[in-house]
Design a protein that fits this description.
The chain has about 250 residues and is mostly beta strands. The chain is about 5% helix and about 65% strand. The protein contains one helix and 13 strands; from the N terminus they run H-E-E-E-E-E-E-E-E-E-E-E-E-E. It has a twelve-stranded antiparallel barrel with strand order 1-2-3-5-6-7-8-9-10-11-12-13. The longest helix is centred in the first third of the chain and has 15 residues. The chain is globular and about 50 Å long.
Length: about 250
């Protein structure tokens, strides 16, 4: 019954509007399931965050829903992210993120994957960003509780901004993901992204993220996360640097 109530609340919040934190690069590594069970599983996450961007203080309530369907041959991953933002004593739903990813499974250390992503972010003047790409994920190390992956994806990017013409670009997205799970109930995760434009490597984005998860004996957990990002060519009037620190409560089903 508790599971049903939480899922209903998650669906209701999702229906309020479209979703995510003010960020140029969305970290998908923290949304994977390293050892998924067969069939459906997922997490519903509720959080309260404080963000300072472009000299504005922003209080934020968030709800995120991650769902995976796993078989021995492939994983299907869907993410929907909803954020309620309070700025200047006004409640705003001003950013959005949906992501669908296909990951081919197997016993090798190389995993082909493909994805489609739609993003909207008023704080960063992103009216619409659509990404579609494919590439390979490489497993460099894996133990029972820890792992280290790197990946390279070639992606097409379509972006609309209020003060710029629509842009069509090809980017390379390279990432590294390191997870220390040997700390038992306090796993630590580090993720880094680099996304240069293919025809102009000076136009790039960088993101670094670190998080600590405090597990309990129940299905509830508490997460602390710090993020830093840089965009070499942000939209006019937008600060190229972005940083945030967030806390959130997770429920896994």
């Amino acid at each position: 019954m508790n599971k049903i109530i939480l899922l209903i609340i998650s669906a209701l919040i999702t229906a309020i509007g479209l979703p995510i934190q003010a960020q140029q690069i969305v970290n998908m590594e923290g949304r994977r399931f390293e050892n998924p069970k067969l069939g459906w599983q997922g997490t519903a996450e509720f959080g309260a965050n404080f963000i300072q961007v472009n000299q504005n203080n922003i209080n934020q309530l968030s709800n995120r829903l991650f769902v995976v369907h796993h078989t021995n041959k492939r994983n299907l991953l869907f993410v929907n992210d909803v954020t309620l933002v309070q700025s200047d004593n006004q409640n705003l739903v001003n950013n959005a993120f949906q992501h669908f990813r296909y990951i081919k499974q197997g016993d090798s250390t190389v995993f082909p994957e493909a994805f489609v992503q739609v993003q909207f972010n008023q704080q960063l003047d992103i009216s619409l960003r659509v990404l579609s790409g494919a590439g390979f994920r490489f497993r460099l190390y894996k133990s029972e509780k820890s792992f280290f992956y790197i990946g390279n994806v070639l992606m097409y990017e379509y972006e609309q901004n209020p003060e710029l013409d629509a842009q069509n670009n090809m980017r390379l997205s390279s990432y590294a993901s390191l997870d220390f799970g040997d700390f038992d109930r306090i796993p630590v995760t580090f993720v880094g992204y680099l996304q240069p434009r293919i025809n102009n490597i000076n136009d790039y984005r960088v993101s670094v993220e670190a998080s600590v998860l405090f597990k309990s004996k129940s299905k509830f957990s508490f997460r602390m996360m710090a993020r830093y990002a840089y965009d070499a060519f942000p939209p006019p009037g937008i600060n190229p640097f972005f940083g945030s620190f967030s806390n959130s409560l997770l429920y896994q089903f």
